[in-house]
Amino acid sequence: MEEFHKVRRLPPYVFEQVNRLKASARSRGADIIDLGMGNPDLPTPKAIVDKLCDVVRDPRTHRYSTSRGIPGLRRAQAAYYARRFGVKLDPETQVVATLGSKEGFANMAQAITAPGDVVLCPNPTYPIHAFGFIMSGGVIRSIQAEPDDGFIPALERAVRHSIPKPLALILNYPSNPTACVASLDFYKDIVAFARKNDIIILSDLAYAEIYFDGNPPPSVLQVPGAMDVTVEFTSMSKTFSMPGWRMGFAVGNERLIAALARVKSYLDYGAFTPIQVAAAAALNSDGAEIEEVRSVYHRRRDVLVESFGRAGWQVPPPPATMFAWAPIPEPFRQLGSLEFSKLLVEKAEVAVAPGVGFGEHGDDYVRIALVENEHRIRQAARSIKRFLATAEKTLDNVILLAARR
Ligand SMILES: Cc1ncc(COP(=O)(O)O)c(C=O)c1O
Questions:
Q1: Res 251: pLDDT
Q2: What's phi and psi for 170, nearest 5 deg?
Q3: Of 62, 144, 251, 283, which is most buried with the most CB atoms under 10 A?
Q4: Is-contact 171 204, C-beta < 8 A?
Q5: Is the CB of 100 under 6 A from ligand 1?
Q6: pTM of the model
Q7: Does residue 206 have its Cβ closer than 6 Å to ligand 1?
Q8: Alpha-carbon distance 387 to 395, whole Å?
Q9: Taking residues 229-251, what's their average pLDDT?
Q10: How far apart are alpha carbons 108 and 202 in whole angstroms?
């Protein structure tokens, strides 16, 4: 029987192949150090958990909640934007709470896409950026992921050669997986371009607060006039170590926010009210929790770069996010990122995410997530050192092994 139309457009996650190997190694008793998935390992701060526990005792919170988010939560998100970015938002019309930013992004794609609409999407990027639109009947045109001098010329080419003209442009800085950060000047150029060409900007700012070296990433909404064409997505998952709670936001242009709210009103009743109340309390807090989360990732980043470097694998220090985007060491690059990742699981007992899982232009890299503690990261480095030392000598065999799969 032929596969369903939509399911055919959703190839199995590339990461699944590494996950399967990981599971089978673990079932043999291997102690796999898992730096693969971007699943924060830190506990949610106690004050947020306590708030949830208090609120959940009130039976009035057990009813259906509101799909757009309770007013106090939308106000808290608007206050966060005012504090952090100097951006004024109307909590009534310019803020929607989402069930994690991923849900918000995917339903925004559903709300605005007509069959065949062209969407400009970075490559490599977090998979929902492309697949949210592919599921909605859109067509993806890949653009480069780095926010450098080549970006605007690439957009100009895309507008000239896309039929129909692109509907939307996706931005994701700090980027998953590349960890690239964009400057406000870059955003100014992009907003001018989008306004001139009547293109919607969808900015994924999930890593707004996970930055190092004292350089907070800007919001594209800081650019005057951006509000006319932009919606930005943020997430509680990384900022407050709340990935399982499923809480995020879309903010920005009223017409786009209204479209998302309309779709969501048909699909969900919003997050469980105690989660929304606890999330509002987190956003209204003094920022000490965010600082703590950030400093843990900062220390892990430094340990990763230093220990992997000593092991013979030079990993550029990411300026933000919870990921390092690591070029595959030269002798192994020809294997491609999937085979290299499989080898790391089998021979070094370390799991990473193959770059090709984020798009074809990611295949020379793997993404290393900072989701194990410093001790485990050092342990991974020692194990990789042993792997590199032995595998380079027997590289021909390794490649043969990979080719035989
Ligand atoms: C760039 C990016 N956007 C969105 C998400 C999803 O976040 P949420 O848990 O808010 O759905 C992730 C999670 O890894 C991400 O890396």
A1: 98
A2: -100, 130
A3: 251
A4: yes
A5: yes
A6: 0.95
A7: yes
A8: 11
A9: 97
A10: 9
